[in-house]
Each structure stands twice: as structure tokens, then as C-alpha cells.
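Hi there,

I know you've been waiting on this one. I reran it after we fixed the sequence typo, so this is the corrected version. Both the input and the resulting structure follow.
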Amino acid sequence: MTIKKRHWALAGLVLALGTAVYLNWQFSPSTEYVQSAADTSASQEEYFGDAALAGATPVEAPTSSSDTVSAAAQTDSLEKFRGERTTARNEALATLQDIIDDASLSDSEKSAAVTAAAQIAKRMEAESAAEALIKAKGFKDCVVIISDSQVNVILLPSGNGIDASTVAIIQDIVMGQTEISPSAIKIIEAK
């Protein structure tokens, strides 16, 4: 594979990952409500201090048999998002590794590939940490997808939906793991 083809392949993978994140965000039906809640995050920060967040009520699990079937489908949906995220990242990392291993490339090109691979690894670590912290707050399951300019958090739905306290909890966790502002954090319920 020539250098030019590898660069185009890497650009295509990055574009595909960005497109997947955008489409996921764009076609989520609950994004409009969450966006309006995120816009008011400055006033929420005064009300939801650390003590209030620590005592937040966990999201309750579904109780009826139809809710259980629905919950299984939603969990499968989250696993699908995780799989797509992992596949896209693995393809990007493999392409970057090919660039690093190519003896015909300059040191600056290899250095750029190493930097890009390190950035992907940093995002993967932040996603895992945010997911673990969100689950530790009592949420049943979630998927966090971090890009350059935004973070998408996909939650299993609860009976209460996404309310202001949920938004505040998620924003606090994500901001602790990234340098993303609250307005760039999108919280979406899996359907």
C-alpha cells in the first residue's frame, strides 16, 4: 500500500468514525430535551453541589416482563454501539500501526501516527473511566463516545427519563474525564 493510499485510508476511517458519532447524535429522539437541559447547566451547578450529586437516586431497573424484554433489546443496542466504536477504533489503530511500521515513511509522518494512536488510546481510557463512574452512580449501563469536540453518552432509559439531576451527574463525570464543556456533552437514551 502506498503512502498516499494509507493517508486516504486513515482519513476515511476518521471520517467514518465522526459520521457514526454524528448520526447517532442526530437521530436520537431525546436529544432535544437533553440539549435544553444542558444549556441551563450553569444554573444547575449552583444547585447541584458535590453533596447533592453524591446522594443522587440511582436509576431503577424495569420491573414488568415486557420491560425486561425491552431492557434486553436496549442492552443489545448498547452492545452494538460498543462494538461499532471498538471496530472503528481498531481499524484506525491498525492503519496507524501500518504507517508506523512502514520503513519508507519519514520520521515526522511516523511521529504524527504515534501521536494519533496515543490520542485514540487516551480517549479509550477516558471512555472506560467515564462508563465505570456512571455505573458507580447507580445507572444500569451506558456507552460513552468521545470525539474531538463532543461527548455522547448513551444510557439505558429509566422510568423517570433524563432529568436535570441526571444531566448534572453525567456532565460532572464526563468533565472530570475530559476537557469538554458541558454544552458539548450529549446525553441520549437508548431506544
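Quick highlight: The beta strands are 142-146, 151-155, 185-189.

Best,
R. S.
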